[in-house]
TrEMBL record:
It comes from Natronocalculus amylovorans. The lineage of its organism: Archaea, Methanobacteriati, Methanobacteriota, Stenosarchaea group, Halobacteria. This is Phosphate uptake regulator PhoU. InterPro entries: PhoU (IPR028366), PhoU-like_sf (IPR038078), PhoU_dom (IPR026022), SpoVT-AbrB_dom (IPR007159). Residues 8-53 form the SpoVT-AbrB domain. PANTHER family: PHOSPHATE REGULATORY PROTEIN-LIKE PROTEIN, PHOSPHATE-SPECIFIC TRANSPORT SYSTEM ACCESSORY PROTEIN PHOU.
């Protein structure tokens, strides 16, 4: 850390020098233009750049299948606007994997393709993205998936179960968008300014989006388990699961409402109600496990996993409520 003394020039202008080492590393010299971004009692300074689109290059010669998919997603989440994938000779399988990865991410499109290079570009304007809208959309999709997954269980509707499984891609796609936006606010204060949200709020949204993504994963798990059930589930078990589902959704909704409200007292009230309800849900889940003892071991095991997924979804709602409490707390 370095310190500088503020001086007054011209009788009314405050000036402060910047460290020469920092200026040299960032290409700042006499005549350079820098940008200032105020944030509470802090003031961030960054060099002004003409080209605001960032480009990253990755050697994919030894990357295939899931490793290549994960590499593309990592470059996307890291915030690169232009992603150049290079190799001595890009194979047909690698090209297919890259295209599938590109289609699974919001805003990406293949811009250039040769034998040894594929360039992907993000076509979205970051200033037009809304982390609030993305998280809201994740909430709607994940809760509808959970509802439809349990409906598929009660009716043994395999087609509906397949639909739930496919919708998990939508939640994952939005999760990647939220992660990309959040990381951009950590990298540059300009991103936070364009969003119109403090970085702490972006962190709260990012943390909650992770919980919603997990709710979607458990809805998908329930759908997969449902496809393995051939005999109708006893009505008393279905009714108990429906009650557990209603309680779990109530926890998630209260947690999300607490997160989104600007009234700190209301947020605290909703968040505490959600956290207290989680303990009741745990007791409710144990009661359903008792009902499963009357079933044959194979069915009881599958239904026990479903009960666990619904219960865990409520836990994730409790985590969102905890985040909302932190958001509502006084700022130091």
């Amino acid at each position: 850390m370095e310190t500088r003394k503020v001086q007054v020039t011209g009788g009314s202008t405050y000036t402060v020098s910047i460290p020469k080492s920092w200026a040299t590393e960032n290409g700042v010299s006499a005549g350079s233009v820098v940008e200032f971004y105020p944030e509470s009692d802090a003031l961030f300074l960054t060099p002004k750049t003409e080209n605001e689109r960032t480009e990253g290059t990755l050697d994919i010669s030894d990357l295939h299948g899931d490793e290549l998919t994960r590499a593309v997603m990592t470059m996307y989440v890291s915030g690169f606007d232009i992603i150049a994938l290079e190799g001595a000779r890009i194979t047909t399988d690698q090209r297919r994997t890259i295209r599938e990865s590109t289609q699974s991410l919001v805003g990406l499109e293949v811009l250039e393709e040769t034998t040894d290079r594929i360039v992907i570009r993000d076509l979205l304007d970051s200033s037009e993205l809304s982390i609030h809208n993305a998280v809201t959309r994740m909430r709607l999709i994940s809760l509808s998936m959970l509802d439809d997954a349990l409906t598929a269980l009660s009716t043994l509707d395999k087609d509906l179960a397949d639909d739930v499984i496919q919708r998990d891609e939508d939640v994952d796609r939005l999760w990647m968008v939220v992660s990309r936006i959040f990381r951009s606010t950590l990298r540059t204060p300009k991103a936070a300014e364009e969003l119109g949200l403090p970085r702490e709020i972006c962190f709260d949204y990012h943390s909650s989006a992770r919980q919603l993504e997990r709710v979607g994963d458990h809805a998908t798990k329930i759908a997969h388990l449902t496809k393995n059930i051939e005999r109708e589930v006893p009505k008393n078990v279905i009714d108990a699961l429906d009650e557990l589902h209603i309680d779990a959704v109530d926890v998630i909704d209260k947690g999300m409402d607490a997160l989104f409200t600007e009234d700190s007292s209301e947020a605290t009230k909703l968040a505490n109600e959600a956290r207290e309800a989680v303990q009741e849900i745990d007791a409710h889940a144990r009661a359903i496990d008792e009902l499963l003892r009357d079933l044959d071991p194979a069915r009881a095991q599958i239904l026990g996993l479903i009960v666990d997924s619904v219960s865990r979804s409520a836990d994730y709602g409790g985590n969102i409520a905890e985040t909302a409490l932190q958001k509502a707390a006084p700022t130091p």
